[in-house]
Amino acid sequence: MAKPEPGHAYFIPRLNVVFGVSSVAFFLTTLWMVWADYSREWKAFQRQFFQLERETTERQIADADKRVNKRELQQVEAELQAATQELAAKEEQIRQLESAVAELNTKWTLADIRERELKAVYDSKKFYYEEGARAPLGKRVSAEEIQALEADFFGDREERLAIEFERSQKQRQIRELRAKVTELNGKKEALTQEAALLRRKLDSIAENFPNIFRNLPVVDFIDPNIEVQQVLVRNVTEDLNFIQVPRIDRCQTCHLGIDNPAYAEAPQPFRTHPNLELYVAPESIHPRDDFGCTSCHEGRGRAITFAGVNHTPRTEEQRHEWEQKYGWKEDHYWDKPMYPSGYAEAGCLRCHKDQVLLPGAQSFNQSRSLYEQAGCWSCHNTTGFENRRKVGPNLQHLASKTTTDFARRWVKDPKSFKTANYMPRFWNLENNLDSEIGARNATEVASIVSYVFSKSKPLTYGPVPGGDAASGKALFAAVGCQGCHIIEETDLENVDWYRRKGPSLVGAGSKVNREFLFNWIKNPKHYWEQTFMPDLRLTDREAADITAFLMSSKNPAFESLPIPQIDDAALDEITLEFLRTSLPLSQAKTRLSEMSRDDKTLYSGQRLILRYACFGCHDIEGFENAQKIGVDLSTEGSKMVTRLDFGYVDIEHTRKAWFEQKLKAPRIFDNGKVKSPPEKLRMGYFGFTDAEVETLVRQLLSQVRDELPREARKTLSANEAYAERARRLIHEYNCRGCHIVDGFGGGIYQTIADTGLRPPNLNTQGARAQADWLFSFLKAPSTVRFWLNVRMPTFHFADEDANKLVQGFMAMEGTDPFETAAEHQADPALVRTGDQLLVRLQCERCHIAAAAGTMEASQLAPSFRLSGERLREEWIVDWLKDPQSITPGTQMPQFWPVDQESGARITPLPDVLGGDPEAQMRAVASYIMRYTR
What we know:
Blueprint: H1 12-38, H2 41-67, H3 70-89, H4 91-131, H5 143-205, H6 209-214, E1 231-240, E2 243-249, H7 288-291, H8 294-297, H9 316-326, H10 362-373, H11 376-379, H12 404-412, H13 434-437, H14 440-454, H15 469-479, H16 514-522, H17 540-551, H18 556-559, H19 568-579, H20 585-594, H21 597-612, H22 655-664, H23 690-702, H24 718-732, E3 740-741, E4 744-745, H25 765-768, H26 771-779, H27 799-813, H28 828-840, H29 867-870, H30 873-881, H31 883-886, H32 917-928
Antiparallel strand pairs: 1-2, 3-4
Helix pairs in contact: 2-5, 3-5, 4-5, 10-23, 12-14, 14-19, 14-21, 15-17, 16-17, 19-20, 19-21, 22-23, 24-27, 26-27, 28-32, 30-32
């Protein structure tokens, strides 16, 4: 073995080899590190985007070139060429003028310097002159000296001003000589400006050496255009290892076209965000720079890899695709994965907790409404659903409404009667199948029904007049019942959800008796004071006809189902089970032996109602103070996944998967477990469709811990608070079943083909109607559109609620509820002119006051007779300017349209009021408000 030479600690040749190998390894490692950084996933996306941007810009240039008026451009270019040649002949004159201007510039500079120097001396001397005797000896200035300085100073100023004047004259001559060429160049630039700007943009992103060089490894720290894009989200923090840090979103590092409408058809991740006028765009109410992305979508905003940001696949196929394409895997250490595609509106709730429904957020609205209609909050405390009327009907007069036979069949399996209902089924599910527990289910059902009927207080009904079912069917379709109720269950998913606000009336004849139905239709509040069902002011004849029609709808298959009966052995088992919760076994058995069959039935029924929480949805005597039995769902969307019991069910361990499974098969998590009846899961089966499951999962995911500080959330102004109070009433009474409010609703429109027969669009209602008239109309509706079959119902609003609606409508439009028509002083001459305009424009052909004869309903409009007390004068002017912007699809013509080229309004009557469109519209509005015919 070789030894170190004397004086050396190591054997140098071997050390050289070690150094050589380590240097090579270090060099290769450095190369690998540089390459790994250069080839990062997000950089590849940005390179792809730049290529896409170049292609898009080239297409835009081609489109812009096509839009140029070629004939006009050729004419301008020909004129420009001639003007340029003409200017060339004057080049010597221009050169001489420019030379003179340059010489004058030099003179002006020297004159300006002399003037400034002399001004400094003059100002100093002037100060001491004004001080007079107070000035120090040797500093005093005489009047002759100051006069001489003044003459010199103002003389120099006159010289500078003369030079300036001469220079400006020569510059003006140069401009005049070049004026034609300058003007034509401006015209040419205006014609080709769009394409020119795009060409400059293309130059800046071209794949040339400077752009390639700036993004090369090592030098890309200087000025790269491939770089991480990030947003510091305003007023929002996030918890990272128990420390609150500012929320930073880097999503646009890959989603580069997210706020550019030009990429609406681009592949992901470059596609434009949907609904730019509402989200992401700088001019939207949710600009990206203020809200970021994770505020709505969740996920890990600081990450810049596909897997790292916690994308969530929507389907199993997408999961496999991502695993192969991006190496995606589920991150169990991040509690807030991104919402899957289609669930993003779950993020709305964290900022809009105080709002009922949101214009433009259809998915959010459907989720919130279904959660409400299905009564999820009846068993589960949920923030925002406190102090509400129970979702199910009052059962305190049930015996006057239906029979025990119907009730037993219905309670056993509500879906067997009609599909479109949200009454859950509690029996014959995964953990209590009829085939496994025998007669126990039927006994439980019969006991519950027996208890409810035993507590029912009878109502006395008089005789019901006979009715005609055919007439009733026509009336049902005409007067507005279909705004809340359906009478067919075919293709339910295509039925507007506003029309399912009230219960489905399929098979009503197999459910209720004629006496109840007739009196309910006439006056719903006789049975249930808190019902939202309105009074349609039906005559006895009309009510009898509709009753006959609904009673003719039967469900023979349901009526043939066996009626659940009480089994004595099962009844004893159930009763003993409940007795043992408070008594020792021996005493429980003794107590059981002392009870009659009826005692056991009613006792078991009462305890079963408590177990299954029937009181959560229904008012039942004896359960007025009973507490909800379900877990609080107010923050279920933030619940740790480890706290969800997945049992032995083979599904993904995610909140979304657990929620979906729970809604589809709520008792399945008991499979494989040994439990006594009281220990078993109790949630009922609702029979939700896949679409409804998705809708409810979105709502559950939206219910998260409120981590946003108050300054980051939507804070309602006073006007917005008034509007929200009204919107809650509008929602509760399902006004959108008939009307469009805030741009959405009008469920009944599905059933009325003729647009002229549809209830009115209530857009701008707060600016349209006077407060006093609207209040009176809500309290006691009257006829405004006499040709409509649909009736505005009487809701019997209390003054407080009517005022909330009026104030809310006014707040939505920012109008003064106390303003009246009497406050507007009318010019008699203007009113007379308005009368003449009304005649010449033939307005009263549609705005008639009596039967219309052969006119189409879509051509009819309200009479002017009510305008003075009903409408606001300023609104009439706005309506005349652009009826379509207020009520899309209206037949009202726009008499004073805006000229697309000039932007000025056009008048059909240039001989009236000097052809001033604004004055003409105000004249018409002034007369309509004082209509006398």
